[in-house]
Amino acid sequence: MSVASLKVNGRVRSVDVDPACPLLYVLRDNLELNNPRFGCGVGQCGACTVLVDNKVVRSCRLTVGEAIGKEIITLEGLESGGKPHPVQAAFIAEQTFQCGYCLNGWVMTAKALLDINPSPSDAEMRTAFENLVCRCGSHVGIFAAVRRASQSAKRSA
Amino acid sequence: MAPKNTVSRREFVKDAGGLLIGFSLADSAVLPRVLAAASPETVTAPPANRLDSWLRIDKDGIVHVFTGKPEIGMGVGTAYAQIIAEELDVAVDRVQLVMGDTGSTANQGGVGGSTSIMLGAKPLRNAAANARYVLTQLASKRLGVPVSELEIADGVISVKGRAKDDASARVSYADLASAGDLNDALKVSGEGFSLNISGMGRPKDPFTYTIVGKPAPRTDLPPKILGQFKYVTDVRVPGMLHGRVVRPSGVGATFVSMDETSAKAIPGFVKTVVKGNFVGVVAEREWAAIQAAKALKVTWTPPKQAFPEQKDLYKYMRSATPKASATTRNFGDAAAVLSSGAKKVEASYEFPFQSHATMGPGCAVADVHKDGITTVWSGGQKPHDLQKGFAELLRVPLDTVRVVWVEDAGSYGRPGFEDAAADAVLLSEAVGKPVRVQWMREDMTAWGTKGPAVICDLAAALDAQGEATAVQFTSRAFSGGETHFRPDAAGNYLGAQLTGIPNTTGVDEFAQWGAEAPPYAFQNVLATSHVVPAFYDSASPLRTTHLRDPEGPATSFAVESFMDEIAAATGVDPIEFRLKHLDEDRANAVLTAAAKKAGWDARPSPKKSMGAGDIATGRGVGLSTRNGTYVGTIAEVEVNRKTGAVRVTRFVCAHDCGLIINPEALRTTIEANLIQSLGRSLKEEVTFDRSNVTSVDWKTYPVARASDVPDRVEVVLIDHPDLPSSGAGEPSSRATAAAIANAIFDATGARVRQAPLTPARVKAALDNIRST
Predict the structure, then answer these.
(1) ipTM confidence score
(2) Average pLDDT, integer, range B420-427
């Protein structure tokens, strides 16, 4: 065990953990951040997605050691000034998701996608999302929410 | 025995001074959804004949509703809130629900069979109607006018025609509720799913509804999307440890010995638990538990070679002596007509084992106190059954076990959340502390329960005019209830079976003509169903139970494909053929509505001009009739003739489930069912070797992904305020496989009769036409 300093959602947090521990368990178990979720532990579903230096990362596949010194954002950290992120607002408006257990991966990936590509085509969206699982099958609403977020970004630009 | 550290419901109510009264529920009834141990009311279900067991109004006018039906991700909680708000004339956001806590909700049998609205909403609607009745009576006394001169708006009862600011002519629910005992004696009927109540209050006429039937945003979605929601995976109780299970090396393998050295070296290791063949580890942190489970070296006896080679599965099912058989329909003399030398159409359809493969592997927290109150937090669909099963597992009285349902990932039946909770119970019992267990992915996909494999053989006789006059249906399926869908006995749970407790509660559940597929009428019908015996009677990773619409998708794949085959053989349009043999207005209406929306090209299949390119296109239909719900699904597909790959480009689904409560949530549920069942139709198949399930993750058990999603998914809702609501959770997943198979046939003339409709199977069917 050793003490690691992690920058999570803008705050520096100290945790006493094995540096080889996947970031997911530290976020959930030590820092009590619930939204990175355990889905598979092998990087196949995306439920544990976080942003590390603005890139989508599977927190089950990144060790704490590798995350030190980097900017980690979880779903909890997307809102600003008490206001939902526009991507979150779009998902709410579209009433997307059934159980919602997977939504962390979709919302975080959608945010990262729109950051680099504000108007993704249908094909680009499918490519960006291909490595995510939604077992309930809420994909129609997910696509609609990303289109809505893209449109609203254009309107406010 | 009187639970320790607990206030009985009677004392709680007495202390609060009345029933529908002005006390804050913030600490006692709402919080238990997540953290009940601090302030439990009672452990067992409250009496159903009391109004306050169902509904209470607090001093702020919030309507608290207590239901034994949990939310499993389809928005039923919001629909309940609409139903209550409608009867009481309050805004939807004034209604708050407590769901599935055995200490504060009546036993409504939990979730199952798409009955949450159809049956489960009835006592809630009646409770609200009775509350309205009692409150109106009180207001009449208070305001000194007859009930007929009162009106209600937004939780305030006022005298008709009096000024809005005239305080002497108005009284709020909250004020009345503070006044004292408003309880009303209720009559109770039925039990479980059918539990209902009635009293003096009568529900409104559905044609006067202003809230029910209108789109209402799902109340659970904003907190989920904003990251504020707590699932069962997020329950933390003081002193909680983390557990992981270590399963046998294969079916029937028994524990020989273990070497704990490496596990014990992991910082935070607490204990290894061995009970028969049940093995688990407990540690202070989750990661330590995972590492310890991996490090633990267990020696097992060689597993049994209990399963056939996967390629021989259907051969095995045909040759096995049935465990049970039933003739479910017998009109006329189908066997005689079929053997009379008439022209015949014959086909066999095969559907594999499928996995619930829930998004979140099973998770639960158990805090076992064998001399006090045990609390278990679980997302299983049937909390009151779990309470009974865990009491038996712990050999303690029922009234010392409280199960608090907290939402988990979508469960789609009895996926193994129940088994994970039993694992937590066993581990907590062993270490004397609260233990949280979450399964690893392979525990869920490989060792979770399975939907049964099903074979249906069909034959039809055609007369000289080309009319189908006789149909014979024979199914062979593993039981949908080998692991009982009601998890109310210790032997029901995988972990308990590993400790040596036998599963004595399984039932024979058949794949049936007319129940799991539309009840088409022919002059002669003979339908027989057989249950194939389980491969292994204890702790098998191929144990079968309910998975969304139990035998429906498999049986409908067969029957709805076969109707298409007869229609093709007799040169009739597939929709026209169905309507000819199913004289039901609502079936007609959904097929007609779907056809209209899709621009259905009415003609026999396959289509005449198939073109010569690599890509062939076609359209197919499937019908689902299920306990009063009617669904017509049309699929449009592209088939790659070279590779056999199928892409569904469009779904049109017309859906009639009687009275619609929340059209928006219904639409999204149907869309999701279509996509989930698309994956089940094209991709999902549990793989196994002689001793183990080899589907262990999302690569070895693929489900629908973004690239599989059709370009267009269109849902047509048909509302029937004149009819009671029927189910909507499952019916729209039933006809998808057949609609796609029928579209493949329409596009190419190739018939695929084994699910899932993989490129290899489609290619083989294409090669088969070329060679004949």
Answers:
(1) 0.98
(2) 98
